[in-house]
Amino acid sequence: MSQDDLVERLLDFLRRSPTPWHAVASMASRLEAAGFRRLDEREPWQLAPGERVYVTRNDSSIIALQLPREPLAALRMIGAHTDSPGLRLKPHAAQSAAGWLQLGIEIYGGMLLAPWFDRDLGLAGRVHVRHPDGRLEGVLLHVDRPVAIIPSLAIHLDREANNGRAINAQTEMAPVLLQGGGSPDLERLLKAWLAEQHGLEDIELLDFELGLHDTQPPSRVGVEGELIASARLDNLLSCFVGLEALLASDGRQGVVLVANDHEEVGSASACGAQGPFLGDVLRRVCGQLGQGGDEAIIRLIQASRMISCDNAHALHPNFRDKHDAAHGPALNGGPVIKVNANQRYATNSATAAMFRDLCRQAEVPVQTFVTRADMGCGSTIGPITATELGVPTLDVGAPQWAMHSIRETAGSHDVAYLARVLTAFCNRQVLD
What we know:
- The mean pLDDT is about 95.
- Strand 2 and strand 3 form a beta hairpin.
- By secondary structure, the protein is an alpha/beta fold.
- The chain has a nine-stranded mixed beta sheet, with helices on both faces.
- The chain has ten helices and 20 strands.
- The two termini are about 30 Å apart.
- Helix 1 crosses helix 10, helix 5 packs across helix 10 and helix 8 crosses helix 10.
- It has two domains: about 280 residues, Zn peptidases (Aminopeptidase, 3-Layer(aba) Sandwich), CATH 3.40.630; about 130 residues, Aminopeptidase i, Domain 2.
C-alpha cells in the first residue's frame, strides 16, 4: 500500500473516531473484517494456536492477539491509548444564560484551552437508554455537524486578551447550543439524534458520557501535503499505525496490540494501563494454551518486548528554545525514541538498541527526544505497563506539533515510517 493510501486510511479513521468508544468500535470492525474473533470477558474462552482474537473492556479499551501456531515463547506487544484531552459534558449539562441553552463542561486531561474558542463543535460519546420493554442498552452517538460553539469575547471588551490572561473553564467556556432552550430541550435533542442515528423510539435516557469535538475534518496540509492536521492525533495516530502493523504482519509470531483508555488522566481505571486489563487477558491466554502458572507467565513476559507508541514533541520552528539543542525531532524525520532518566519514559539502552536495529532493518530513519534539563516531562502508558507487567519496554512515537490542542499537526511521511518499523517488530523472530 502506498503512503498516500495509508494516510487516507488514517484520515478516515480519525473522522470516524471522535471518542474512545468510537475508536474502539472502528478498530474492532477492521479486526473482524480481517478474521479476528471477538471474545467476551464474561464467558469461558476456547483458544487454539494460530487464532486471531480480540477483546474490549468498557468499550473504550481493546486488546487484539495474534497467536502463533508454534508454542508461545514471546510476545511482540504494541501499546497505545484511545483517549485525547477535551471537553466532557457534566451529568446535568443543561444551563441557561442570556436566553441561550449552554452546556456545563468538565476538562478532560491536560488540554490547551484557547484553541477551543470559535470552533464548530459536534457532540459524541455513548448514551445508556431504557427501552419500553425494560431492556437497558448502551449506544454510540456521533453528531458530526456543528451544533455548538464557544464564542470568544471581543477584543474591545477585553483589552488584555492578548497579554496572557488566564482562561476560567467554569465561567468562560460553556458552549452555546440553542437559543431560548432549557433542560427539557437538551433531552429532546438527544432523543432526536438517537432516533435519527439508531431508530430508537419511546426510550428513556438514563445516563451518558458525552464530549464535544471539532467538526472540521482532518486534512493534508502544505504545498506538497507534507503535514496532517487533525484532532486527536495524540494518540489515535498510534492506535491506527499499531493496527496497520498487526494486520500487515506475516502471522507467524505472537503479537499483542493494546489500546487503553484514560491515559490522559493517569491510567488508573479498570480499563486503563494501570488497571488489570492486559494482565487478565494474558493470564487467560496462557492458561488456555497450557502455559498457566506464575513461572510460565513470568518467563513469557520476560521473553517479550513492549513498544509503547505515543506521539513525541517535534521541534517547533517558532519555539526552538523549548527543545534541547541535540534532541529536537523533525516532522517527517522518522519515529522518535523517547528517553527520560527519571523513568517518565520506559526506554533503556537495551530496548532502544532493539528499536534502532528494527529501524535499520526496515530502512526507516530514527530520532531521539529528551526534554530540557530545566523543564518537566510528560509520560505515557509505557512506564505504567512496564511496572504492572515487568515487560521490557521502550517509548517511541511519531513527532507532532501542538500536542493537546483541538487540532494537532504531524508529518505525513512519519505514518508510513512508523508502520514499517512496527510491522518489522511484529515479524521479528528474535527479540533480544
